[in-house]
Amino acid sequence: MTIQFHKETFRGEYSFHNSERAIKRFPFPFDKDSYMYAVNMEQHRGGPADSVYEKRFDVDEHYVSEMEDRALVLADDPLRCQSLPHMTLAGWDLLELIMVSKSEDYPELFELHRDGDQWRWVNKPLGIDDTFTFMDETTLPYGPMEYITRQTQGDFCVLDQRDDNLWMDAGTVTTQADWSLDFDIGMNFFEWHAPVPLAHEKGIFVRALKFLLNIQQGAPARRLNWTMTVNPLLDTSPENYHKWGIQKTTLTPENIGSKQHLRVELQTFFRLPRSNALVFPIRCYLCSFDDLMTVPKWGRRLHRVIRDLPVELATYKGFIDNRPMMLDYLSKFDDGQPTSLGIWPDLETEPPLKVVRSS
Amino acid sequence: MSKFEFPPSIKSRPVWGTLEPRAGKHHLMIADAAGAEAILGIATPELMAGTHIIYIPRGADHADALRAQNPAQFYEGPTYAASVSRIRRVLQDASMGLQVYLTGTEGLMGQAMHEAMQAGIPHTAIQTEHRGSVARRMQCVHCKGITEDVETDPFVCSHCGLNLFVRDHYSRRLAAYQGVCIDAEDPGNVPEPKGIYE
Ligand code: HEM
Predict the structure, then answer these.
(1) How far does the CA of residue A166 sit from the closest CA of chain B (Å)?
(2) pLDDT beyond 70 at B25
(3) Residue A63 burial (CB < 10 Å; 0-12/13-18/19+)?
(4) For a Cys staple, A112 with which of A103, A183, B17, B42, CB 3.0–4.6 Å?
(5) How far apart are CA A107 and CA A101, in angstroms?
(6) How far apart are the C-alpha atoms of A315 and B169, rounded to whole Å?
(7) Helix (H, G, I), strand (E, B) or coil at A60
(8) DSSP designation for A291
């Protein structure tokens, strides 16, 4: 399947849009009609053809434009990419993991030619053809982590593992759901998760950390997380919150379907070979309510999830004020019929929407 | 003087303890303002014979009382910023088994703790005790500027002028809490500031 890369923006006039294909493969995060935090992790060993689970690092129609957006964010604020001095080796590990994975999974887009430590990397969508010496930083235009994450969709946290904990000691973070790498760098697993409500009390982080510490090389894992974003804005950073926060107040019953986006993070976990660090790619997918509603199962389910979501979660995720307006919109797509288990759209088997009486 | 009981908080926020004299030849005590009282509380002639005190009075008048304990070394600094290079130098020379005691405001303890960790002092050799002001050292997440001794929530960033609310999220690396714009979604609607723990 050849990918048509969009020319689009995630700011200003927000020309971002999803093709029909992108909507069908959107990682809808709810496998049932309700949601609560859980240790929802599974092996990352592929998935249905053309799903976002299929490849190790999914490349989609937004690739080129997302990389342009990242370059803008980094030009504006270099602190969004940081690596503590002991993390350079992990950066090389990450560069290798991504180059090998992408060249194997998308040979028509990426090529890696290795001759000893002389490597040639060809990235056709971004028009890059670089030759460098593996493990020699002076032969790349950026440090290894920055070099490769400027060419890979999603945020990246690189975690050092020591004292039975994970430490956020490096990362490139420009598409985050309102948290600051610059503030969190150097923190351990429990410290950077401190602001999350309810999950500590449920023991979720203790169990999740135990799982992560035991992830082996070649056996990556994954989970989905989600939030809500008004306008397809990738850079919902705390750094710029004083600029974008106001956009949350621009929703109206008329524009909510096109402006309100479900924001889903496909989070994966890979053990790195030389450094024994763990890398945590956080890949962000955006889909407008209008587009989501083209899948009847998702319409029914999203209404029920948002309606029944605990106040603490709706507050933490930043949409408590807009929830009533969301529910007005979503209720029109919930005809009360049952939904099939699992996240997939099930377009062939799920019934079409019955006309809902307007409330 | 009674000690302030901090309310339970989130996991990034440090929990301060109570100083107790430890065995060992070398002791480094760093204190500001009312932190002197915690030192006076544990001072014995034996302990003081191996102790280097670095004290920043910040208007308090405990320096003479500390000096009167006859510590092996005593330094009185006008500000933390003026004292930090000396603190680094002393930590650089730290012998195995050095015991570190930090007491006073959270800003002092947090910053000195960061220096001690950077110098490789094991956390088991560092004790803390909060005394005095409950003001916080705050980083503005927007402009990155640090405002010292913030007593109210919200407050105005001393660098960029935004109105910030005081979060409990704390960075040990920065020795600061996070301040985030309070009126981003409703410009100009800034609640009346009140004490952080009121
Ligand atoms: C080591 C990899 C991980 C990193 C770097 C990471 C990082 C983060 C960060 C920075 C936040 C935002 C916290 C804030 O509000 O400031 C967050 C939120 C969260 N994390 Fe993680 N996390 C990781 C793994 C996990 C795992 C394995 C779980 C499994 C349960 C998990 C569960 C959560 C939850 C439930 C939230 C709240 C999200 C929301 O409601 O939108 N995290 N994580």
Answers:
(1) 14
(2) yes
(3) buried
(4) A103
(5) 10
(6) 16
(7) coil
(8) H
Residue A358 pLDDT greater than 90, yes or no: no
Asked if the Cβ–Cβ distance from B169 to A242 is below 8 Å, we say no
The predicted pLDDT at position B3 comes to: 84
Tokens found for residue B38:
């915690």
> Per-residue pLDDT for B99 more than 60?
yes
Would you say B50 and B70 are in contact if contact means Cβ atoms under 8 Å apart?
no
Fold for B27-130, please state it: Rossmann fold (3.40.50)
Whole-number Å distance between alpha carbons of A299 and A169: 40
Q: How far apart are CA B92 and CA B85, in angstroms?
A: 11
pTM exceeds 0.80 for this model: yes
**DSSP β-bridge partners for residue A161:** A166
Distance from CA of A90 to the nearest CA of B (A): 21
Contact B173 A186 (CB under 8 A): yes
Place of tokens 């490096």: A170
Mean pLDDT of chain A: 97
Residue reference for tokens 């935004």: B162
Tell me the pLDDT tens digit for each residue of A81-132. Answer: 999 999 999 999 999 999 999 999 999 999 999 999 999 999 999 999 999 9
* Tokens 């992790």 sit on residue: A41
Q: Which atom of ligand 1 is nearest to the CA of A212?
A: 27
pLDDT tens-place string over residues A189-210: 999 999 999 999 999 999 999 9
Examine the residue annotation and report whether A274 is marked as an active-site residue of this protein: no
| pLDDT surpasses 80 at A356 | no
Query: Ligand 1 center to residue A202 CA distance, Å?
Result: 14
Residue in chain A nearest B143 by alpha carbon:
A239
Please indicate whether, in this complex, the C-beta atoms of A194 and B172 are within 8 angstroms of each other. Answer: no
CB atoms inside a 10 Å sphere around CB B85:
9
Q: What are the chain B neighbours of A184 within 8 Å (beta carbons)? A: 171
Instruction: Determine the distance in angstroms separating the CA of A179 from the nearest CA of chain B, rounded to an integer.
Output: 10
Where do the structural domains in chain B lie, given as residue ranges?
A: 27-130, 136-195
Question: What is the H or E stretch that residue A113 is in?
Answer: strand A110-115
Structure tokens at A205: 């982080």
Residue B167 alpha carbon to ligand 1 centre in Å? 18
Q: Which residue's CA is the nearest one to ligand 1's atom 5?
A: A157
**Alpha-carbon span B169 to B95, nearest angstrom:** 34
Structure tokens at A9: 């923006």
- φ/ψ of residue A61, rounded to 5: -60, -15
* Cβ-based burial of A246 (10 A; exposed 0-12, middle 13-18, buried ≥19): middle
Count other Cβ atoms within 10 Å, centred on residue B161: 11
Burial degree of A199 (CB within 10 A; 0-12, 13-18, 19+): middle
Summarize pLDDT for A44-79 with one digit per residue, the tens.
999 999 999 999 999 999 999 999 999 999 999 999
Tell me which chain B residue has its CA closest to the CA of residue A184. Answer: B171
- Quote the ligand 1 centre to A55 CA distance (angstroms): 23
Atom 11 in ligand 1: which residue has the minimum CA distance?
A193
pLDDT score, position B73: 98
From the list A223, A263, A300, A304, the catalytic residue is: A223
Domain ranges of chain A: 20-38+47-331
